[in-house]
Write a structure and sequence with these properties.
45% of the residues lie in helices and 13% in strands. By secondary structure, it is α/β, with parallel strands linked by helices. The strands form two sheets. The chain has a four-stranded parallel sheet, with helices on both faces. It has a four-stranded parallel sheet with strand order 6-5-7-8, with helices on both faces. The radius of gyration is 22 Å and the shape is globular. The protein starts with a helix and ends in a 5-residue tail after the last helix. The chain binds zinc ion.
Length: 293
């Protein structure tokens, strides 16, 4: 009798094990915008989660022990690459290559037109590549292929979701191209150099940035150059929710610039990738054209 029960228990454990191996694929992404893109493809067939907390810097984040185990548990890890997230380079190197999707390396991405963005000391490509709807589709396509490999029975669903997302993005992109036109000649500076994809694709006139990455404090020489550029042609200065130096507020006041806020990762209320881009368009337009949108 006891042996029978033990057998039954073993069978149950085996069945449970089998059902676990058929569990939904788990996609982990480094940043919220990548999560939003992955969710468009995953639908309810796969789980998607974000590694970094909302307020963490996407340039430098001290990983916790629990973050390492989340990386191990994920079936697929989507990140931009060491050009943006150098703090992830080592942990990612320890994962099997098939589990990793490095967005920065994908073929067919669009990159900002360098001439339109002031750039004195860097000629690297801006890694904030999700701020171009066309790139979001490229990333989504790569996620689709990975999900199909992990979960072949849902191939049709993933492909359909990709199609829907691609046509949504095409429509959104055309709408934003028209919507951003009135702001095209208005000079501004951003807090960190993270918006070049949006600025370049929608023909905006960025004069400068306060700092290249949020972790660096601007030097006196750079602040002088910024002051000159903005006093000549500037109308707006964009801060960020977690980067809000009093010195830059003072500069805006001194030069009579309007202050706006940009969030490259989307705010807490951002629930879809479309909302992220729409919010960015609204934030740019509200400050640049001085009209509520
Ligand atoms: Zn950034």
């Amino acid at each position: 009798m006891r042996i029978m029960m033990l057998k039954g228990f073993l069978v149950a454990a085996l069945l449970l094990g089998t059902s676990l191996s058929h569990a939904k694929p788990l996609v982990l992404s480094s940043l919220k915008p990548l999560t939003l893109i992955a969710q468009e493809i995953a639908g309810t067939a796969a789980d998607v989660d974000t590694l970094l907390p909302e307020s963490a810097s996407h340039h430098d984040y001290p990983l916790k022990v629990s973050d390492y185990s989340r990386l191990q548990k994920a079936d697929l890890f989507v990140w931009i690459g060491p050009e943006l997230e150098s703090f992830l380079q080592k942990p990612v190197a320890n994962l099997p290559a098939t589990k990793i999707l490095t967005a920065y390396d994908l073929p067919g991405l669009f990159w900002p037109d360098e001439a339109s963005v002031s750039d004195d000391h860097h000629h690297a490509k801006d890694p904030h590549l999700w701020l171009d709807a066309r790139n979001a589709v490229t990333v989504a396509r790569a996620i689709t292929e990975k999900l199909i490999k992990l979960d072949a029975p849902n191939t049709d669903l993933y492909r359909k979701n990709l199609q829907v997302f691609a046509s949504k993005m095409h429509e959104l992109d055309n709408r934003l191209l028209a919507q951003m036109k009135p702001a095209s000649g208005v000079g501004f500076a951003v807090y960190h150099e993270g918006f070049a994809h949006f600025v370049s694709h929608y023909g905006l006139r960025q004069l400068d940035y306060i700092t290249f990455t949020p972790e660096q404090k601007p030097g006196a020489k750079h602040m002088q150059q910024l002051r000159e550029r903005l006093s000549k042609d500037g109308s707006c200065l964009f801060l960020e929710p977690y980067n809000n130096l009093q010195a830059t507020r003072d500069l805006a006041q001194e030069l009579h610039l309007r202050i706006g806020t940009l969030d490259a990762l989307g705010t807490q209320s951002t629930k879809t990738y479309s909302q992220l881009l729409e919010q960015m368009a609204t934030d740019f337009l509200t400050c640049l054209t001085n009209v509520r949108h």
